[in-house]
Amino acid sequence: MSDTKSLSSPKKSTPLSIRLTAEERAWMQRQSNGGSLSAFARERIFGRKSFNNSAGSRSIHPDKVAMAQALALLGKSRMSESFNALAESARIGALPVHEETEKAINEACKQVAYIKSLLMAALGIKEH
User: Using CA atoms, how far apart are residues 60 and 39, in angstroms rounded to an integer?
Assistant: First the structure.
C-alpha cells in the first residue's frame, strides 16, 4: 500500500539514476525538445502530463546553444571592428576606394551589427 501511496503523492521525491549510452541520451534530448529529461522520463513511465518545455526547465534548447555559439564566433572574429576600421580608413581617405565600395563596407557593418542584435535578442541578452 505504501508503494501506491508514494506514486500518488509526489510531495517527497527520491532520485533515480540510470545509465544511458550517448545515443540514448541524445534521443531523449531530441524527444524532450530541450525540456527536463527527468520530467520527460516521468511522463513516459507514469503517463503524467507533468512534462513541459517551459522557460524554467534546466535544459538548454539545442537552438539556443547554436545561437550562443554563433554569437561567440561573431564576437571572436572581430569582423565588426575590421569593417569599422576599413570604413573609417575609407572615410578619411587613407584607403582609396570608390563611393560604391565605401557604401558596401558600411552596409556590411550594419549587417554584422544586425546579426549580432538578432542573436542577442533570441538569447534574451540585453545590449548595452
Answer: 14
**Which sign does the torsion angle of CA 84, 90, 95, 100 carry?**
positive
Interval 110-119: pLDDT, tens: 888 888 888 8
**Residue keyed to cell 524532450:** 32
> Running DSSP on this structure, what letter comes out for residue 14?
-
Write down the H helix ranges in 32-98.
37-46, 62-77, 79-92
d(CA 60, CA 52): 13
Which residue in 57, 10, 48 sits closest to 29, CA to CA? 57
Measured CA to CA in angstroms, residue 19 lies from 22, 39, 54, 115 at distances of 10, 17, 26, 40
The pTM assigned to this predicted structure is 0.44
